[in-house]
Sequence to fold (294 residues):
Amino acid sequence: GTAGGALASFVDALVCPICLEVAQTPVNVTCFVGCEGTHAKANATCLRSSLCQHCANEVLQLVRPPNERFSSDAGRARCLICRKTSVDAKRLTPLTAYHVNHTLMDAMDRLSLGARCQKCDVEFDSQTELQVHYLKACPHAVVQCRYTGCGEFGTRASLAAHERACPVGRTRCHQCEELVERDALVSHMVTSCRQRTVACIVCGQRMPLPEMLSHLRQHQAQLQMQVMEKKAGRKNSSSSSSKTSATRGGGSGSNQSGRAEPSAVQQPQLRTLAPPPSQPSVRRQQQSVQARVL
Fold:
């Protein structure tokens, strides 16, 4: 009865005025300065306007590049409440145009109302899961450039091209002219740049990487020449040794097959005779013999 009627009234209040369905990831638009709605100061949210986040992006043309928004109205975005107050559409971003109503999302999850991404046509169990999908994966979500300090916004699908050349987060390598992330520039120049300076592993000379191949080929040619010279030197040494051995072997062979060379005449060896004893010596010997006889 009463509880059911209250629930039905609550669900009816959740209907997005743009798509006329229950608001998915409900947001409250920010009132423009001078708005005749509930609030009359900037950055205050009008609680009467609960829109789907995707619907808010569409109606405020946040999915377009800033300079292409509301071209038929001189680039001015009109307040969704009073339709009179307008602001420069280029200044609108998801951070300034609306605020996600987390309180309303929690109430919807407590009532198990489920959730659905209108752009991807994917069902979720809760608004919390839907918001995670929007922030992390949805290609139609309007997000900010991932580089700190860059204020560029766009759909996730279109922002990828901007991030590849973002002037804030990326810079051009002066060696190869390639755009790389500023935080990874030093690492790129040392480890992956195609024009990085490297040292030769043979002689230690430093030069750009493209020149290293021809430089190493020069070392290779020099090494091959040295190897060939060593082989030629060994061959010459072996040939000389063979010729010397053949010459010696050839001389002894001719003596065996031909006439025998005359052997040298052996001269008789003369013994050196001791000189004859002197006369006094002979006399002493005779006297000694005579003394033994007597």
